[in-house]
Amino acid sequence: MPKRGPNRAERTPVTADEVKKWLSACSPDQPIESKDPRYVPLHAFKTKGGTVSLRGEDPVLPVFDTIILSGTKSCQLFSGYIGTGKSTELKRLAQLLREKDYIVLYSDAQRYHDLAHPIAIEELLVILAGAFGEAAGEHLKKKDLIAKSYWQRFLEFLRKTEISLESVTVNPIVA
């Protein structure tokens, strides 16, 4: 058996359940807000020696600047691996835009689709329409301008409209 150095710790075996519990504690179900005490700005991490970046430049400010400078139209792609803080940073972007009086519609895909399963473009389009219909509905309800949600209108459309399809596949919704 090899000797361990003075600073080497013995490895303690852990179970899969312990790892799941630890990961769930580290990864909240909902993205955290930038004002949350758990939020760590990895692009501006404060140390005793100053501020360092652990991920490069601030991921939000270039997107914010592009939206502000572009006027009315802007299309942005914000990507990254699972758990890298995309949703948290997008919530920070939303807050910055709201502070500039922009209307921000934020919707979390996990509410509508199990992200562990592949999605067809047709499903994605319906989910996007429904998700942003709901987000717009929440925004407009504050102004009493919307009576029915997108999902209610979509179901009424399906019930009242005769649809002729050559082929269709419907996957069950897993709850």
Which helices and strands appear, and what pairs or packs with what?
Layout: H1 16-26, E1 45-47, E2 50-52, H2 61-70, H3 86-99, H4 121-141, H5 150-160
Structural overview:
There is one protein chain. The chain is built from five helices and two strands, in the order αββαααα. The chain has 175 residues and is mainly α. The N and C termini lie far apart (50 Å). It has two domains: 31-104, no CATH class; 110-175, no CATH class. A hairpin with a 2-residue loop joins strand 1 and strand 2. It has a two-stranded antiparallel sheet. The model is unreliable at 4-8 (pLDDT under 50). Helices cover 38% and strands 3% of the residues.
Order of helices and strands: HEEHHHH
Distance between the termini: 50 Å
Number of helices: 5
Low-confidence runs of at least 5 consecutive residues: 4-8
Main sheet? 2 strands, antiparallel
Quick structural gist:
With 175 residues, this protein is mainly alpha-helical.
Keywords:
175 residues, globular, mainly alpha
